[in-house]
Amino acid sequence: MTQTSHTLIPTPRSIAREDHPISRKSISPGALRVLYRLREAGHGAFLVGGAVRDLLIGLAPKDFDIATDATPEEVKALFRNSRLIGRRFRLAHVVFGREIVEVATFRSNADDGSGDRETHEGGRLLRDNVYGSIEEDAIRRDFTANALYYAIEDFSVRDYVGGFEDVQNRVLKLIGDPEQRYREDPVRMLRAVRLAAKLDFSIAPETATPIPRLAPLLHEAAPARLFEECLKLFLSGHGEASFLGLEQQGLLAVMFPESAAAMANNRSGALRRVVLAGLRNTDARVAADEPVSPAFLFALLLWPAYCHALMGLQASGTHAAEAQRRAADRVTLHQLTTIALPRRFSVPMQEIWLLQTRFPMRQRKRVVRTLSHPRFRAAFDFLVLRDAASGSHAEDVTFWRDAQDDPDHALAVQQSQDASEDTEAAPRRRRRRRRA
Q: Do the beta carbons of residue 248 and residue 362 sit within 8 Å?
């Protein structure tokens, strides 16, 4: 066992082909071409990271990443269909039609004085382009499950940090000192939650314990990067599990502070039920390969904050329509300090909220205008979720579902129901008795 800057690592272990389930048939043709070409040129070439992990547990990887001792410039010289990208982390992309194979050079944790490794005074990693050996590359990766290397030369899996056993035990474990690794990159806390949700892994106690205390470090991350992480958390088919993981680890209150506070103060739990019902619906759509708009996702996640702000404005005497607009603007503006929600998503998000107040209105002109609104379908789906969580919008759901097919018939049915209710509610006239 050898000592490193991050942790004590076990002696490298090689898992032979007959002892693991990975087959070349499961690896994309593009990735195989890169592996063989690098090998033929005399370089070490390994499939690495999430692809190896997923193949070991029977999942189909979406991406295939490769690690090599070749520099980015050497990779570019071997592949005409490649381009170099990145400043903080320089690597090569080899393009095969729609497939992009990412090729990274082995990194080292050491600072060689070249200026290619730079850290923030708080420990956050700003630049990391110091190259090293495969052993050094393994220990600088985030989780042990992501530090496994599939060797094309003999089809074995190389394990330098005990990741093979962790994958078999379905546990997510950070390499090195957890606090130091989170300070290097606070987004690793979100990655821990996301991977645990996606893989149905548990998070090792020593990896999970520092997260609630270090969660405020996420404020140092770029808001644009947190937006991308949100899409990965909630639009990959495991949104509900990711939400529960964020709650459990104390990260939800940092990512969505106003929504988290609103749900905590909502005694009935209706606001939280709406969010969970929506995330379950989103997961089902992703599983069915149906699209989900980020605007709808954020309308769902920020709905508790919007409801809380709206109630506060109405309680202060603000007119209903004005309160709705101000609440939507206020919640959006506050959230932008944490997550950079692009305007192309924030505007339709607000429209989904504001359309909710139109659904109880049955006047013909209003019905026609609402049906023609470009955000009607998304707003109606949102209404259905609200009804699923509370059961108090069934009449609205029925009317607007019928109105989409035949507005005139839906209005006629509504008018008939209203007339019937008026008749039943009218008091019976008493007959006057004639005096003798």
A: no
Residue 122 has pLDDT above 70, yes or no: no
Q: Is the dihedral of CA 191, 193, 199, 202 positive or negative?
A: positive
Given a cut of 80, whether residue 256 has pLDDT beyond it is yes
DSSP string, 11-40: PPEEE-GGGS---GGGS-HHHHHHHHHHHH
Helices (H), 141-248: 163-168, 178-184, 188-199, 205-208, 211-214, 223-234, 239-248
Where do the structural domains in the chain lie, given as residue ranges? 1-169
Confidence of residue 401 (pLDDT cuts 50, 70, 90): very high
Give the pTM. 0.85
Active site residue 19: no
CA angle 38, 40, 42 (to 5 degrees): 75
Whether 289 is catalytic is no
Q: 29-35: which pairs have CB atoms within 8 A and are 24 or more residues apart?
A: 29/96, 30/64, 30/94, 30/96, 30/99, 30/101, 31/64, 31/66, 31/101, 32/152, 33/96, 34/66, 34/79, 34/94, 34/101, 34/103, 35/66, 35/152
User: Ramachandran region of residue 44, left (φ > 0), alpha (ψ -120 to 50) or beta?
Assistant: beta
CATH class of 1-169: alpha beta
Over the stretch 346-397, which tens digit does the pLDDT of each residue have?
999 999 999 999 999 888 889 999 999 999 999 999 999 999 888 889 999 9
Cα–Cα distance, 132 to 147 (Å, whole number): 15
Q: Which of 142, 166, 283, 387 is catalytic?
A: 142
Q: What is the pLDDT of residues 269-283, one digit of tens each?
A: 999 999 999 999 999
Q: Are 331 and 353 in contact (CB under 8 A)?
A: no
Is 54 considered catalytic here?
no
Burial 96-123 (b: 16+ CB within 10 A, else e): eeeeebbbbbbbbbeeeeeeebeeeeee
